[in-house]
Specification:
- This protein is mainly alpha-helical.
- The protein has helices spanning 15-30, 48-67, 82-91, 104-107, 115-130, and strands spanning 2-6, 9-13, 78-79, 99-100.
- The strands form two sheets. A two-stranded antiparallel ribbon has the order 1-2. It has a two-stranded parallel ribbon with strand order 3-4.
- Helix 1 crosses helix 2 and helix 3 (82-91) packs parallel to helix 5 (115-130).
- The radius of gyration is 15 Å and the shape is globular.
- The two termini are 23 Å apart.
């Protein structure tokens, strides 16, 4: 376990996960002009949002530490509805974090052909233009 501190808040992250982020994910986003999308799946109350928060906080910490880029990750980067997620992507700066928490509400398989899902898929493509995480 590794401990990191971002904006006065300390958290633990698994060493293997930190290594993957450090050696593959973060350099791809920042150095290779890539984008990253993570899907975290699990049952209700299993810590999906917490894991997302740790990964995003670690990303922001490392990008600031290594590349001197402040991506300013906070609760303001977490969106709970398709429209807020859309606004978050549209207003995001290069390399910024955008989280769609509770995405099943807008992207559920029963609604896979819905207008919301099509809009969200288009937004995922737009994310590429900004190298969002």
């Amino acid at each position: 376990m590794a401990i990191f501190t971002y904006k006065g808040k300390s958290a633990y992250i698994d060493d293997r996960l930190a290594n993957e982020l450090d050696t593959k994910v973060i350099p791809d986003v920042v150095e290779k002009d890539s984008d990253m999308v993570f899907c975290i799946d699990g049952g209700e109350g299993t810590g999906k949002s917490k894991l997302s928060d740790i990964i995003c906080g670690y990303y922001a910490f490392k990008v600031l530490q290594v590349y001197k880029i402040d991506v300013d990750y906070s609760v303001d980067n977490v969106h709970l509805s398709p429209s807020k997620f859309r606004d978050g992507i549209i207003n995001a700066k290069k390399n910024e974090v955008v989280v769609y928490d509770e995405a099943h509400k807008g992207m559920g398989s029963r609604r896979s052909l819905s207008e919301i899902n099509n809009i969200l898929n288009d937004l995922m493509m737009e994310m590429r233009q900004k190298n969002l995480f």
